[in-house]
Amino acid sequence: MTALHLAAKHGHIDVMNGLKEFIPFRTASEKTGLTALHVAAHYGKADFVREMLTIVSACVKSESPISSTYGSQWSSEAGMTPLHFAAQSGHEGLVRILLNCPGVQTDAPTSVTVLMSCSHPSSVMSPLSSLAFIFATRSIIAFTGA
């Protein structure tokens, strides 16, 4: 992981701000294929995610890992968005934040849907409650224009 990825994992916004001039924030880790935004979403670092969203699109997709060391662990994660990671980890607040971002689609074509992410064993949300949550949130956003 890069310094930015480690800052994302631990929610260190000050480190991120210090790296702005030196590191492109859309860069994915060669070992995992994930951007710092994916990492922050996975670990539930809402403030870090909000700050990153001022620089990086919420629609950025994970890449296939280049390094063979971690390739088998993360290869199924390629094409996933930060929304997938937030849902998979059960971070409802982050799911709401990411659903409110421009261009985010819950039905975007990937190998893993957001609903499948919610039913992952590490998720605290059941598939049914996840589906209800996603559709209810999308309906509220559409209704209020938020």
Topology of this structure?
Blueprint: H1 3-10, H2 13-19, H3 36-43, H4 46-52, H5 68-74, H6 82-88, H7 92-99, H8 114-118, H9 127-144
Helix pairs in contact: 1-2, 1-3, 3-4, 3-6, 6-7
Description:
With 146 residues, the chain is mostly helical. The chain has one domain (3-144): Ankyrin repeat-containing domain (Serine Threonine Protein Phosphatase 5, Tetratricopeptide repeat). Helices cover 51% and strands 0% of the residues. It contains 9 helices and no strands. The protein has helices at 3-10, 13-19, 36-43, 46-52, 68-74, 82-88, 92-99, 114-118, 127-144. α3 (36-43) packs parallel to α6 and α6 runs antiparallel to α7. The longest helix is centred in the C-terminal third of the chain and has 18 residues, at 127-144. The termini are far apart.
Explain briefly what this protein structure is.
By secondary structure, the protein is mostly helical. The protein has nine helices and no strands. Helix 1 packs parallel to helix 3 (36-43), helix 3 runs antiparallel to helix 4 and helix 6 packs antiparallel against helix 7 (92-99).
So what's the overall shape?
globular
Count of extended strands:
0
Nearest-integer average pLDDT: 75
Level-2 CATH architecture: Alpha Horseshoe
Q: In percent, how much strand structure appears in the residues?
A: under 5%
CATH level 3 topology: Serine Threonine Protein Phosphatase 5, Tetratricopeptide repeat
Major sheet characteristics? none
What are the segments in which pLDDT stays under 50 over at least 5 consecutive residues? 71-75, 119-128, 139-146
Order of helices and strands: HHHHHHHHH
CATH level 1 name: Mainly Alpha
Number of domains: 1
Question: At the fourth CATH level, what is the homologous superfamily?
Answer: Ankyrin repeat-containing domain
By helix and strand content, what is the structural category? mainly alpha
Radius of gyration: 15 Å
Tally of helical runs: 9
The CA-CA distance between the termini, in Å, is 35 Å
Helix content: 40-55%
